[in-house]
# Entry
Amino acid sequence: MLTFRRPKTYRARIAVALGLCASVCLTFALPSFVSAEPADFRSTWPVIPAAHPKSAAQSAKTATSKPKSSRISVARAPNRIDLKLIESIPHEVSSGFTPAVNGFSFSNWASETTQSIITVDTLVRLFGTTPTCASVVEGICNPAEKTTLLITRLNEILAEGRCEGMVALADELFRHPTSISSVSTETSNIASLSADQASSEIGYWWATQITPDAARAAQTSRKMTPTRIVKTISERIRNRSGGTLGLYYQGKGHAVLPISVKRSGFQAQISVYDSNIPNTIQFVDVNLRTNTWRYRAIDTNGLVVLNWRGGNSGGLDFIAPSTRRSQQVKTLSFAMP
# Structure
């Protein structure tokens, strides 16, 4: 057993006292560890993968379980209430998007990693031939080594879920109905499309998130408060200019399509189309006073399959359609997750 011996001399006692004071002050001064920032990719977690479906009960348990972590999470102090910003948010605005009519009839799905949905043509369409091809012979692109590696990595991530591509494409077809001919010439109704018919185009729109402009938009908006995000979505809906909402929780990412916003006092509710639960309207609730949000996705059986929440900046982002357009770059140098 260790014992503490009291110093015999006066100077020794003073030295011990000063040492104890210094250690106490240092303990209070040291910062605590803060949890890591969320991943950049928004479509790495389908709630109900088709290849290996989970029961609703299992999905609910997974969604609400707490991750094991040795880090201490420290809550950031809430931002000051911006009454002017809150009051500028309209009481109600809607795009008119109806999931049962304007959304896909099938749900988001996972697939085998060996499937090559993202191809050389996908990247040529996004970035042109210069950064994608080592050479072009008779109109055929011979992909550069970096391109091949990127395609492999993208298909690996895509295999885990397609929510980003599904909501981005649904948004595009809703605002430009005639563009459905680029998906299929057999129908003019998105709800009539099959997963096989739309798979390639969904893959393309999923990949648009790696364009520099889209990645920059996501990163910039992730610094916004939930109140500012609600304001941005309201303006986009009112101007009929579209855009997708990203949500992040405990290292997972998901993308949904905002279709309306309702505000009552300090409470705002964003109605969304969620590709994991087709033919339904889901809701993201935002407390504008505390800058906190919550998303509870409920399936057709009334079971909660997703229960996410967050506060202040970092948990939500927004990508406008204009940032997803084809962009000329010098090299395909992207930081992959």
